[in-house]
Specification:
about 140 residues, alpha+beta, Aminopeptidase, globular
Length: about 140
């Protein structure tokens, strides 16, 4: 198993993992973006990712993008982070997360940020073991067009 920066050719595998994540989070019909949307965003340098690859197959990914915190400065936002179920508890997720953290540091970020669904206790414990503060007093807002 290797962890590496994603290439454009990896986007199909990443897209499938995002759909798998939506199923895991009990939102199987929530993914409205297309592979073409991913390709365009990747080509425009809007998104980047690291993948975990085993025997030529993508088994996990961390997809992120640069943003800006008015309180802290440059920030790398982890949009999606997923490892196939049969590869969990193998260290794959930790290696992907470490690659994400190292990417943020190499970009001069002052902070990283992400969301975690409230019922995913294993993920929450994973993040806390990595020194994260899980904020419970900020609520997400959104408008879907």
């Amino acid at each position: 198993m290797i962890i590496r920066k994603a290439k454009r050719d990896d986007l199909g595998g990443i897209y499938q993992l995002v759909k798998d994540l939506a199923i895991y989070e009990e939102e199987p019909d929530a993914v409205k973006s297309t592979l073409e949307d991913y390709q365009k965003a990747f080509d425009e340098n809007l998104i980047s990712a690291h993948v975990a690859e085993e025997n030529g197959s993508i088994i996990g990914m961390a997809l992120y993008y640069m943003t800006f915190s008015t309180w802290r400065g440059h920030m790398l936002y982890l949009e999606d982070f997923y490892v196939k179920e049969q590869h969990r508890s193998s260290g794959t997720g930790q290696q992907l997360f470490d690659a994400y953290i190292n990417e943020a540091k190499s970009r001069g970020c002052k902070m990283v940020k992400w969301e975690v669904i409230d019922w995913n206790e294993k993920a929450i414990k994973f993040y806390e073991r990595n020194g994260a503060t899980i904020e419970k007093h900020w609520w997400d807002g959104k408008i879907i067009f």
